[in-house]
């Protein structure tokens, strides 16, 4: 299932952009048309689920604003800045969850836990300062990495040749996501060995024997 959103939101728009450019379509038009794919998917998903996800809403709003601005100015760099706006909004949202009842990693991990694991995680959140600190640390890591992606994407959109930015930006985002995922897995594997409870509801062999 992971490959479906990956293809729709990243690979297909990227392929469409360079296919359009090969047909001598203007840069801003190619960027706009390729951006319609993930936006249409987000809207379609919201209709089917009858629920609007924050990330999907941000994507559609940013596309609408950048498209309107680009139509007025004729500048493709305005549309490129949209790709910086998405991780910026996501990073701020993740960091903002530090002030919520439960931070983003705790909420994300609900999808990986069974009911018993969720009850265990709730008790750990209430009783174990180390558990809360570890999840807050991951919140800072994930949110900060998205803001880093946004800053680098902004610099690339403003300085690099337009036709290079889409592919460089995708590889950059993948690289940052890969590093964050590796650090998250390492932290989640190390934590149960000391406290007897996994961060994400999937017990390692060491935790199971504890």
Summarize this, please?
This protein is mainly α and 210 residues long. It has helices at residues 3-22, 27-49, 54-73, 76-96, 104-109, 115-127, 129-159, 165-195, 205-209.
Which structural category fits the helices and strands? mainly alpha
Return the average pLDDT rounded to an integer.
Answer: 81
Q: Extract low-pLDDT stretches.
A: 204-210
Structural Rg: 20 Å
Sheet bearing the most strands, described? none
- What's the helical proportion of residues? over 70%
Number of helices: 9
Q: In terms of quaternary structure, what is this?
A: single chain
Total E-strand runs: 0
Question: What distance separates the N and C termini?
Answer: 33 Å
String of helices and strands? HHHHHHHHH
Strand share of the residues? under 5%
Q: Can you characterise this structure?
A:
Helix 7 (129-159) packs antiparallel against helix 8 (165-195). The protein starts with a helix and ends with a helix. It is elongated and about 60 Å long. It is mainly α and 210 residues long. It is built from 9 helices and no strands. It has helices at residues 3-22, 27-49, 54-73, 76-96, 104-109, 115-127, 129-159, 165-195, 205-209.
């Amino acid at each position: 299932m992971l490959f479906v959103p990956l293809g729709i939101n990243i690979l297909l728009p990227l392929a469409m952009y360079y296919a359009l450019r090969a047909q001598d379509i203007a840069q801003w038009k190619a960027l706009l048309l390729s951006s319609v794919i993930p936006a249409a998917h987000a809207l379609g998903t919201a209709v089917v689920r009858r629920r609007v996800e924050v990330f999907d809403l941000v994507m559609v709003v940013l596309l609408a604003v950048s498209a309107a601005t680009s139509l007025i100015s004729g500048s493709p760099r305005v549309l490129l800045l949209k790709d910086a706006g998405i991780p910026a909004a996501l990073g701020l949202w993740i960091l903002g969850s530090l002030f919520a009842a439960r931070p983003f990693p705790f909420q994300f991990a609900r999808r990986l836990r069974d009911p018993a694991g969720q009850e265990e995680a709730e008790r750990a959140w209430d009783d174990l300062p180390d558990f809360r600190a570890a999840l807050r640390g991951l919140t800072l890591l994930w949110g900060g990495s998205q803001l880093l992606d946004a800053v680098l994407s902004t610099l690339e959109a403003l300085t690099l040749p337009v036709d290079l930015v889409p592919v460089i930006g995708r590889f950059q985002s993948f690289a940052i996501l890969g590093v964050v995922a590796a650090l998250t897995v390492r932290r989640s594997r190390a934590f149960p060995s000391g406290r007897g409870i996994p961060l994400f509801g999937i017990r390692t062999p060491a935790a199971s024997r504890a």
